[in-house]
Amino acid sequence: MPNIDRFNGIKINVYNNEHLPPHLHVYYNEFEALFDIVSLKIIAGNLPPNQMRQVLVWLKDNSELALKIFYRLNPRLR
User: Fold this and answer.
1) 20 exposure class (CB count in 10 Å sphere: 0-12, 13-18, 19+)
2) Domain assignments of the chain as residue spans, ordered by start
3) Among 9, 18, 30, 34, which is least packed, fewest CB within 10 Å?
4) What is the CA radius of gyration of the chain?
5) Nearest to 7 by CA among 63, 67, 68, 51
6) Please, what is the Cα angle at 1 between 32 and 65, to 5 degrees?
7) CA gap 48, 65 in Å, rounded
């Protein structure tokens, strides 16, 4: 279940066999970025400013869900 949400052309994915810190993969057109779920900071890649704001709002509202999914897909990292 890699795709956990999709809105305004933005795809938010969480994968199994991942690494710490707990993070999301975010895709928008040709852009890709990784966001730390706990700190809400971008840890790799980039997004256009408008999409960056949208993802940060989404992450603030859904960080608990995203963290739960991350650890469900990556139980060895708990």
Assistant:
1) exposed
2) 3-77
3) 30
4) 11
5) 51
6) 80
7) 24
